[in-house]
Amino acid sequence: MFKDLDPLLHAQLRLAVMSLLLSVESADFTFIREKTNSTAGNLSVQLDKLSEAGYISVEKTFKGKKPLTTCKVTKKGIKAFEEYVTALKQYIQK
């Protein structure tokens, strides 16, 4: 019996964001947008979805007069990602 893949992580951009955040301590919005080659609007929506699920934390501050959005993966996000990878492996190995 296959375990269902987490639909929140199965979306391409959200999966890319999670993969990226797992490889760094934290990342700012511009860095994530450039690395994922996404539009600011689409990325903003996807970060909101990941944040609402508790998979990432989003901190909004200012750097001088410019807004700065910094994202970090949470423990819940790490666990969800690990479960996603485990479930994906079940599909590949069968």
From TrEMBL:
Xref: SUPFAM superfamilies: Winged helix' DNA-binding domain
Q: Which residues form the Winged helix DNA-binding domain?
A: 13-92
PANTHER family in the record, alphabetically?
BSL7504 PROTEIN
The protein's matches in InterPro entries, at most eight in alphabetical order, are given as: WH-like_DNA-bd_sf, WH_DNA-bd_dom, WH_DNA-bd_sf
Highest taxon of source: Bacteria
Pfam (any one): HTH_34
What Gene3D superfamilies does UniProt report for this protein, alphabetically?
A: Winged helix-like DNA-binding domain superfamily/Winged helix DNA-binding domain
Q: What is this protein called?
A: Transcriptional regulator
